[in-house]
Design goal:
It contains 8 helices and 8 strands, in the order H-E-E-E-H-H-H-H-E-E-E-H-E-E-H-H. The protein is α/β, with parallel strands linked by helices. The protein has 2 domains: 100 residues, Zincin-like, CATH 3.30.2010; 129 residues, Zincin-like, CATH 3.30.2010. Bound molecules: zinc ion. The site of zinc ion (ZN) has 4 residues, from helix 6. The site of zinc ion has 4 residues, from helix 6.
């Protein structure tokens, strides 16, 4: 099965980039919590981790997933057919159920730094991923910052695939939707990688800004942050 899946990734590479030699590809199933997959390149080799919940997925849907992940890695336009065959399987009740069960089972054991005093970043990420991204954002490492920063509330480190959220927001005085909004913004940095044009870097492209407004509490969040900057600053100074 893994060999056949690996072949699908090779196929996807040559489909997107017929002129380039297909790099060595390693595919494994990984016990991610929920529905989650990752693809990365290290030393010219490609490592694909497919969420364990998909270990019974039919090859046709694996093909869809292969085109999605490779397309994202190469930053190419992903054919809509690929998304369709993959998401048809992901949306099925059996998969959803398995995903929740395994989340519950692992939730008890796993201790991560993403759990703050009030808010759990992993949980917020998973929830946003299914609400806004059809679970397609590969899960980064999510951590609360060591110090309470107030000017920068979130940061996405594309090189290491980290999202850091300011510990200032891990407080009962901060509404849940504000924390979601900051995490959502950082997730958009994964969905819209930095564009390079004439030697300039563009992080917040018009497409990024358009998607940002799709967040249900966009206005409320912006307003809350604007009104509470001073409060966050005072809390940071006391820290
Ligand atoms: Zn940003």
């Amino acid at each position: 099965m893994l060999d056949q899946i690996t072949d699908l990734y090779k196929e996807a590479f040559s489909w997107y980039d017929p002129k380039r030699a297909v790099p060595p590809i390693h595919v494994t199933f990984y016990p991610y919590i929920g529905i989650n997959h990752t693809i990365r390149i290290r030393d010219g080799q490609v490592f694909v981790r497919i969420g364990q919940v998909c270990d019974e997925m039919p090859l046709s849907s694996h093909k869809g997933l292969a085109y999605i992940l490779v397309g994202k890695l190469l930053r190419k336009r992903i054919p809509s057919g690929a998304r369709e065959v993959y998401s048809a399987y992901i949306r099925s009740d059996a998969v959803r159920l398995r995903a929740t069960e395994n989340k519950r089972a692992r939730g008890r054991k796993v201790i991560t730094t993403s759990k703050g005093l009030v808010y759990d970043l992993d949980q917020i990420f998973e929830d946003l991923n299914s609400r806004y991204f059809r679970d397609l954002i590969p899960k980064p490492a999510l951590t609360w910052s060591a110090r309470k920063t107030y000017r920068i509330l979130g940061h996405h480190d594309a090189t290491h695939g980290h999202i850091t959220i300011s510990r200032s927001l891990d407080s009962a005085e901060v509404p849940h939707y504000v924390v979601e909004y900051v995490v959502f913004h950082e997730m958009l940095h994964i969905a819209h990688p930095t564009k390079h044009l004439n030697g300039r870097r563009y992080n917040h492209t018009p497409a990024f800004r358009r998607d940002e407004k799709k967040f249900e509490y966009f206005e409320e969040s912006e307003r809350w942050i604007e009104r509470n900057v001073r409060k966050l600053k005072r809390a940071a100074k006391r820290d």
